[in-house]
Write a structure and sequence with these properties.
The protein has 152 residues and is mostly helical. It has 5 helices and no strands. It comes from Timema podura.
Amino acid sequence: MVSICDIVLNHTANESAWLKEHPECTYNLINCPYLRPAYLLDAVLHQLTVEVAEGKWEFSGIPVEVNSEDHLTAIRNALFGDFIPQAKIPELFCVDSGHLVSEFCSQARSRVPPVAVSAPEEGVLAIIPDPLYRRLKATVDMDLALRLFNVY
């Protein structure tokens, strides 16, 4: 075999004219909202990199030129102690419990609860992620919640 050519269209440069004409053909936060957590983590890593390059973290043991394990430990501490908590990435997977409790109470008051039968309702109430990965917008199956917990 003389040569092999592998063309991967989703590896097109982000400044190509083709992608500017057809933005739906690329991964972005509009057509792929599930990438939002990764995007936020990437933004955090970029910000840390910029600040380290500017020398803003030298007082914390992270010099502009990272070349030892101690520097990596200091970077890890800055990343997990300062940067990642500020991004609040877990909120993309969490519910607003106050809102859900209010919604549950409102719906429970407007329905006549069924009389409990000998066998309790089957099912496991689980968090349903928000399809757009908005903060504190995950939810639960409210009908199942009412069947499980709104009984005489």
